[in-house]
């Protein structure tokens, strides 16, 4: 029914970031089929007045499509074949949402509250039906929870919300239940494709929320395996061999990056949900992690010394199936009109750069408005091409990519810094026009430098081809 979608989420509270912003990030990964992604602004007049899910046929009651929707950014599937799949964005109230992280469950909860077989909502629908109607991260949790309870879901998934002050993570449980936790301001979260929330305090309404009957359900059906407290991962989640090889190692590598003294092994099933870094976290840190493939470990797939068995043991974060990755940043050191930034990259993260787009805009650059077909005027396809070419000889091409990324990121940061200063005091359409102009500059820079990287890779790879013959050979 649903398209393959397996991701890696990173969440950071405002006291754990380098500049006091909140950040929620996720790589949107797919399956073996390439899924082109786009970047658009959805204006109020573009928001559907009647909604029907493409995958399930679920129709939404008109009273749940609230009047006066907010403008928001979106990273939808370019083809629309499986529906919108808006993925992530920031709305006009400076609230960010990313959805979803596919997660796991166990047979106990599925036997009580099965996933919906006909109808229901899922990743295809969540952003479109939630983001334009909320004014805080907490409101986002409440609305998404309401939709899950009313219409049900056909998949287990996790979503995240952020505003200036709070970051929240919500997971669906069974077909109609959910639980959410506020991320402490000084903490970060690494959430791979498993049920991630562990400790849960049903009495702390400020930092924990859930469907109203969740505790009764746990007690009535004897779901808690622990003698004391409530650990939702133990109660509702899985602890499988697949988790040990596919999910847990990604969290382990993130923890190891933020805390070199981190104790634990890649397959550990009980790595904590709430964690604390030894340094303040920047967008560049998240970019590195979302691009990572176990560098400096025996599991690096590009290593020339690791065995083939070691290189294939664990699923990396950066992978050929990265089709869109974002960092949704709500800044607290600038004026409200420029606080929302959607860092965005298309294609495998090992050979791309994140672009910090302002989200207070009514349109987006054409090179990021991807179509469904191969088109080298769209950066999605150039990034995909570069990653596949780079994969043929990572030792040679990675040095070119690193220089490209550092040079491009510096220039993108320069445009952002200059724009922040230039638009001080501007409001309304005048401000939006300046931000759209800045976004276009950044898109053009990223596109031109990415094309230049392609040229450098072709030039470097010319003499490496096996199809060659020289009299001196």
From TrEMBL:
Swiss-Prot/TrEMBL GO biological process terms: proteolysis
InterPro entries: C69_dipept_A-like, Peptidase_C69
Catalytic activity: an L-aminoacyl-L-amino acid + H2O = 2 an L-alpha-amino acid
Organism domain of life: Bacteria
Enzyme Commission designation: 3.4.-.-
Single GO MF annotation: dipeptidase activity
Enzyme kind, highest EC tier: hydrolase
Name of the protein described by the UniProt record: Dipeptidase
Residue ranges the record marks as coiled coil: none
NCBIfam families in alphabetical order: C69_fam_dipept (NF033678)
Family the UniProt entry places it in: Belongs to the peptidase C69 family.
Keywords (A to Z) from UniProt: Dipeptidase, Hydrolase, Protease
